[in-house]
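The methods section describes the discrete structure representation at length, but only in general terms. An entry of this sort, consisting of the sequence and the corresponding backbone structure tokens, reads as follows:
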Amino acid sequence: MKIEKINDNKIRCTLTSADLAERNLKLSELAYGTEKARSLFQDMMIEANQQFGFNVDNAPLMVEAVPVAPDSIVLIITRVEDPQELDTRFAKFAPSGDDTDGPEPVQYSGADDIIDLFHKLCDVKNKAQEIAKKAAQKENEKEPAASEEKNVDLVRTFHFSTLDDVISSAKALNQYFTGSNSLYKNTADANYQLVLHQSGCKPEEFNKVCNILSEYGRQESFSLAAEAFLLEHGNAMVKENALQELASL
């Protein structure tokens, strides 16, 4: 609990979640005005009196509550010299007992009105929790879509006239691509076919790889059925890491 003097008639009190925890107080207890809540308000006024000489002397108090976080509140407490300035929002703390014995702490009562201010703080906390809950739900809804994007595995195929063209393209990539790729030889027309999988590579990076390969070979349409046929009947020269192996030649 932090208490600051603004002027002779005004103080600022800051209550945080740590202050409440020290007193084993919940925000809801403040809102409903339990004995522990009343004790907190009494201690607050006593400490203000001891630190700054903020003496109520039966004067009415104007209390402004400003929520600064879901679990924190700032109370601006003003001692009002003219009671006519007060309206129904202002809380009055009246000292009880005899305070003529010097430094003996005085006791304050009449904290009921200020409790209503904490209802607003509870509303703020509940709304903040509801907003956070909705935000979490939206993030959870986005996760499946993001997972689907990660699971996409694009496949591209390139035809090369000679093996030297394939080796040149591999050296041009210079181990830049580390995904799955296999090289097949087409005995019918004596050319070479490279099958390239995205393999988790970012779309822009995969496009860059395809653009470089297009400078040495010819990209053609391809399907999973065609790849299945190659796997079963094709003449595979290098499987899974053809570009990586050819780049090291």
